[in-house]
Amino acid sequence: LECLECGKCYAKSSDLRRHENTHLDDDPQKDTYECDICGKSFTERSSLTGHKKTHLDEADPVQAEIKRPCKCEQCGMAFRNATNLKNHMNIHTGIYPFKCDLCPTGFNSNFLLKKHMESHKRG
What we know:
With 123 residues, the chain is mainly α. It has helices at 13-24, 45-59, 61-67, 82-93, 110-122, and strands spanning 33-34, 41-42, 70-71, 78-79, 98-99, 106-107.
C-alpha cells in the first residue's frame, strides 16, 4: 500500500492511513518529536523511540559490526544477515519481487508480503 503523496509503502492499511494523516497538517506548531542525537523529527513518539535504538549501535562500533555485519554501501544501514541486506537493496533499485496475487502491490521482502496478505483476510 503506497502513499500517493510521498511514495512510502506500508503493509497494513491502518499504517498507511496513520502516515497519510501526517500530510494533512502542515501546521508548523504541530507536535513533533525530535531526536536529540541527530535532529531527525517524527510525528509520533513511538517512531522516535524506535529510531533512537538505531543510535545504540553507533556508541559501540565493534559491537555493531558483530550484531549487524552486512552493511549497505548506498545508505549505510546494516543488517544481521545477507538476506535482509538483499531485501533492503530492492528499495534502492525500486524492484519489489514479492508480488501480491490479489492486488498490484509488491514488496521488498516475503515477510512484508505475508503481513500484507493478512490485510486481505481481514477485508
